[in-house]
C-alpha cells in the first residue's frame, strides 16, 4: 500500500527547512505569510524578541470590507499593500520574506509584489 504525505505536511516540512536559514531581527524583521482555503494572513515578526510587530489578514473587518472575495489574487495584493502600510507606520522599512513553505506563485507572489510596490524592501 502506498502512503502519500498530504500537501499540508509537505508544506510544513518545507517551511521548517526555510526557517533554519532565515530569521527576523529588530533591524530586519520577518514577513511571514500563511494562506488557508478562504483567507490570507501576514505578520511582521521580530524573532529575537519573539513578538509580532504588525499583522494583517483578510478576516479583519477593515480589510474585508474593501474586498469582493477573500481568497483570490486581488485580495492577496490588497493585503500586501495593507501590511506594507502598517509596517511603514511602525517604522519597519526592510523585511525578510518568509513564504511559509508555499511556492512563490499566485497569491504569495501577488502579496510580495504589492508589499514591494507599497514601499517595503526585501
Explain what you see.
This protein has one domain (23-117): Nucleotidyltransferase, domain 5. Helix 3 packs parallel to helix 4 (107-117). The protein has a four-stranded mixed beta sheet, sandwiched between helices. It has helices spanning 7-21, 61-64, 73-89, 107-117; strands at 30-35, 40-46, 51-57, 96-98. The chain has 122 residues and is of the alpha+beta class.
Count of distinct strands: 4
Query: For the residues shown, what is the average pLDDT?
Result: 96
Uncertain regions spanning at least 5 consecutive residues: none
Name the strands of the widest sheet in spatial order.
3-2-1-4
Task: Give the overall form.
Answer: globular
CATH class: Alpha Beta
Query: How many structural domains are formed by the residues?
Result: 1
Largest sheet: number of strands, sense, barrel closure = 4 strands, mixed
Rg over C-alpha atoms, rounded to the nearest angstrom: 15 Å
Helix amount, in percent? Answer: 25-40%
Structural class: alpha+beta
CATH-defined topology = Nucleotidyltransferase, domain 5
Which series of helices and strands comes N to C?
HEEEHHEH
End-to-end C-alpha gap: 45 Å
Helical stretch tally: 4
Amino acid at each position: 500500500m502506498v502512503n502519500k504525505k498530504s500537501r499540508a505536511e509537505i508544506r510544513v516540512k518545507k517551511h521548517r527547512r526555510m526557517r533554519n536559514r532565515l530569521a527576523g531581527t529588530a533591524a530586519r524583521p520577518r514577513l511571514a505569510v500563511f494562506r488557508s482555503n478562504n483567507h490570507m494572513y501576514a505578520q511582521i515578526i521580530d524573532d529575537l524578541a519573539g513578538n509580532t510587530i504588525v499583522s494583517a489578514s483578510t478576516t479583519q473587518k477593515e480589510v474585508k470590507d474593501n474586498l469582493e472575495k477573500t481568497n483570490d489574487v486581488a485580495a492577496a495584493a490588497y493585503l500586501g499593500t495593507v501590511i506594507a502600510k502598517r509596517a511603514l507606520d511602525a517604522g519597519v522599512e526592510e523585511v525578510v520574506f518568509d513564504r511559509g513553505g508555499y511556492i512563490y506563485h499566485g497569491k504569495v507572489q501577488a502579496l510580495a509584489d504589492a508589499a514591494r510596490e507599497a514601499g517595503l524592501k526585501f
